[in-house]
Structures are given as C-alpha cells and as structure tokens.
Specification:
Oligomer: single chain
Mean pLDDT: 84
Structural class: alpha+beta
Strand order of the largest sheet: 4-3-2-1-5-6
Helix content: 25-40%
CATH class: Alpha Beta
CATH architecture: 2-Layer Sandwich
Number of domains: 1
CATH topology: Mago nashi protein
C-alpha cells in the first residue's frame, strides 16, 4: 500500500518538476507590462518599412521582407544581451527623445508596448550626420550585428 503511494507521489513529482522546468521564463529585466513589447529596426522607402527585423521580449529576432512578404525567425538572443540591448535603448530614448528626419530612404528603430500604450519611433536619413542621427545609427548597427557576437 505504502509502496504504491510512494510510487504515485514520486511519479507526480517527476511530472510536475519536468513540466515546470521546461516552461521558458521571461528575463528578469522584463516586467509583466513590457512582456508583449516589440523592438523593430530596419529600412523605409517613402515612409513605408520595406525590410526590418523584429525582436520580442523573449529575445527572438525575426526578419521581414516586403518584396517576398515573408517573415523568418533568424536567431534568439541570450538574456544578458537582450537586457543590455533594452537598457541601452532606454537610455538612448531618454537622451534623444525625438528623431524624425523624413526622406526618400530612411533607417528606423521603433519600440512598441501596447499594454502601456507606448510607441516610440526614430527615423533618420543615414546620409546625414548629426548628434541624434549618429547615436541612433550606431545603435542600429549594433542591432544589425547582434547575431554575429
């Protein structure tokens, strides 16, 4: 009787421990209200995004191409890189609170948090250099090279 009870308890314990450990946890730097946020960066032509990458708050980066209308998962960031990237973006948004330089060809970075009704987009012409352009351009190229680390 006790052997069966112990066996059932042990099996239940194993099932619970395996199922609980296989669920991916959100990174510590992401609070619950930011979990559904998205970071996008890419190129615009005539004010319309033509190709961009999108990162969710679990660090999954997908690439979108308007020519083929396709979206492909490219890679996944580790939690430290994800948190450092978001911290750097937050500092940059605070430092340069607006950047909108419309042109025929633009680069852009946007952060969207629908749960908090927050939208930030920096748009600049990569041909020109000024303080805001250079800092966002530098961050843009860091984003482009995240999978090359």
């Amino acid at each position: 009787m006790y052997n069966k009870l112990y066996s059932y308890c042990f099996i239940l314990f194993l099932i619970l421990s395996v199922s609980c450990s296989s669920v991916e946890k959100q990174p510590d730097c992401i609070n619950k209200t930011a979990l559904n946020s998205t970071l996008r960066w890419g190129k615009m032509l005539g004010g319309v995004p033509t190709s961009y990458k999108s990162m969710n708050m679990m660090g999954e980066v997908t690439k979108f191409e308007s020519k083929t209308n396709s979206e492909v998962i490219e890679f996944k960031l580790d939690k430290d890189t994800l948190c450092n990237t978001l911290e750097e973006l937050g500092s940059l948004i605070i430092e340069i609170q607006t950047l909108n330089v419309p042109a025929e060809n633009n680069l852009f970075i946007e952060y969207v948090n629908k749960d908090r009704d927050f939208f930030f987009r920096a748009v600049w012409d990569p041909r020109y250099k000024n303080d805001g352009n250079e800092k966002f351009n530098e961050f843009y190229h860091k984003l482009e090279n995240l999978n090359k680390k």
